Amino acid sequence: MSAESLRIVTYNSFNIRFYVVGKVAYICPEDLRNVMLSVSKDIDIGEDKAWDKVDAGRRIFSFFDFFEWFSDQFDAFDYADDVILLDPLPW
Q1: Were 90 and a residue from 6, 43, 81, 83 both cysteine, which residue would form a disulfide, CB within 3.0 to 4.6 Å?
Q2: Contact status, residue 25 vs residue 52, Cβ threshold 8 Å
Q3: What sign for the dihedral angle of Cα 73, 80, 20, 8?
Q4: CA distance 89 to 83
Q5: CB neighbours of 82 closer than 8 A, spacing ≥ 6?
Q6: Can you say how many angstroms the Cα of residue 44 is from the centroid of all Cα atoms in its chain?
């Protein structure tokens, strides 16, 4: 994967990194966690290295403003039955 494959969207001052395989965006859990921590809400990222939009949405739903923004940003992408991890990951 080349550096050009990494995409970034920004929520307030937080960069959210993701890459796309087919029509599925895979989002960096740590970036979402940083946004959630900014409003004193922690999310468990466990050992996950990437989330599709459905997995991410479930974890950020409690911060509705961010969830609404996130939904708009990733509306064009599909969800995944199985996560495709790139080696190496771009983050």
Answers
A1: 6
A2: yes
A3: positive
A4: 12
A5: none
A6: 13
Name the residue with tokens 């970034």: 8
Residue pLDDT, tens place only, 12-53: 999 999 999 999 999 999 999 999 999 999 999 989 999 999
> Hunting for tokens 């995944």 — which residue is that?
80
Run of H or E residues at 56:
helix 53-60
**What is the secondary structure of 4-44 as a DSSP string?**
GG-EEEEETTEEEEEEEETTEEEE-HHHHHHHHHTTT----
Tokens representing 13 are 């001052």
To the nearest 10°, the Cα dihedral for 74, 76, 79, 83?
-70
